[in-house]
Specification:
The structure is a single chain. By secondary structure, the chain is an alpha/beta fold. The protein has a single domain, classed as TIM Barrel (Alpha-Beta Barrel). It has eleven helices and 13 strands. InterPro entries: Histidinol_P_phosphatase_HisJ (IPR010140), PHP_dom (IPR004013), Pol/histidinol_Pase-like (IPR016195).
């Protein structure tokens, strides 16, 4: 079986994604996906959380629409889950943000409805400033965190640890996103910075994820964005495996054109690490829920070989 645990659509992430959610579902079916995790971005709460394209023409209107849009997304996700149940196993989730600790209670509230199967725990910020939007904002984040990349990496992994402790996500999104716009995205941080302080924070976070049973996603979006390795990079992935960690698999697609992008490269990368299987979730009754009771979820392993054979892509 083939799957993604991280996906977006232009319908519910307008501005930086494309296509209607139903069209994404139909395309995923056409290329061999048997499980599709829907994970549109959670609503944010302050004007300062908005990205530049959301500030015009009316930032207050941009902010006000986020929570109603999330409710509309959940209704549409449940409709699609039922409609396409004979063809694909749809999991309903969202991508949690961690801009500040106050997001912890909000993530838990958003995860409470019976229709929600899981959420992704992600950081796109350091010191409250986006790190993956553009290089100008990356530089602002670096300066706000101490004016060096070492200081920003340390801040990022400390804030990530706050998130991990606060909400314990089953899926940890793009663990080392911080390297995307780095001056040296391929740098080895285990021996590349003084006293190894950043690396110890990385190891702390990885150990915590393993301890509560979370998964890191092998996220192939890093490859389409020009990095040589998926998230997480080899150094982090090897340490996670050494600690006993398990991977899920994601394209982090933002529309039809990105569904399964670089999947064969990503699978090959995992094989080069010695990984033989990836993990996903399966509802014990699907579609729908039993009243207000969440559907029980079963962890399901998929061999790399079986995953590759299921994909109808070159």
């Amino acid at each position: 079986m083939a799957f993604t645990m991280h996906s977006h659509s232009g319908q519910f992430c307008p501005g930086h994604a494309k296509d209607q959610l139903e069209e994404v579902v139909k395309h995923a079916i056409s290329i061999g996906y048997t499980t599709l995790g829907l994970t549109e971005h959670m609503p944010r709460t302050e004007l300062s959380d908005l990205y530049p394209e959301e500030l015009t023409p009316d930032p207050h209107a941009s902010l006000a629409v986020l929570l109603p849009r999330h409710a509309t997304y959940l209704a549409e996700a449940q409709r699609l889950q039922t409609l396409y149940a004979p063809q694909i196993h749809i999991l309903i989730g969202f991508e949690g943000e961690w801009i500040r600790p106050a997001f912890g209670p909000l993530i838990k509230e958003l995860a409470a409805p019976a229709c929600i199967d899981y959420f992704i725990g992600s950081l796109h910020h350091a010191g409250g400033i986006p790190i993956d939007f553009d290089r100008a904002m990356y530089a602002q984040a670096r300066d706000a965190c101490g004016r060096t990349e070492e200081a920003m990496y340390a801040r990022y992994y400390d804030e990530q640890f706050e998130m991990l402790q606060g909400v314990r996500p089953k899926v940890v999104g793009h663990f080392d996103l911080i390297r995307l716009m780095s001056e040296e995205p391929g740098r080895r941080i285990s021996d590349g910075w003084a006293e190894g302080k950043v690396w110890e924070k990385v190891r702390r976070n990885l150990g915590f994820v393993v301890g509560y049973g979370g998964w890191l996603e092998c996220n192939t979006s890093a490859l389409r964005k020009g990095l040589e390795e998926p998230y997480p990079g080899r150094e982090v992935a090897e340490e996670f495996l050494r600690l006993g960690g398990r991977f899920t698999f994601s394209d982090d697609s933002h529309g039809i054109a990105q569904v399964s992008t670089n999947y064969l490269r990503g699978l090959g990368y995992l094989e080069s690490l010695g990984v033989k299987e990836v993990w996903t979730l399966q509802r014990s009754f699907h579609p729908g829920t039993d009243g207000d009771v969440k559907s029980p979820l079963v962890e399901k392993s998929v061999t790399i070989e079986g995953f590759r054979k299921a994909l109808k892509v070159k």
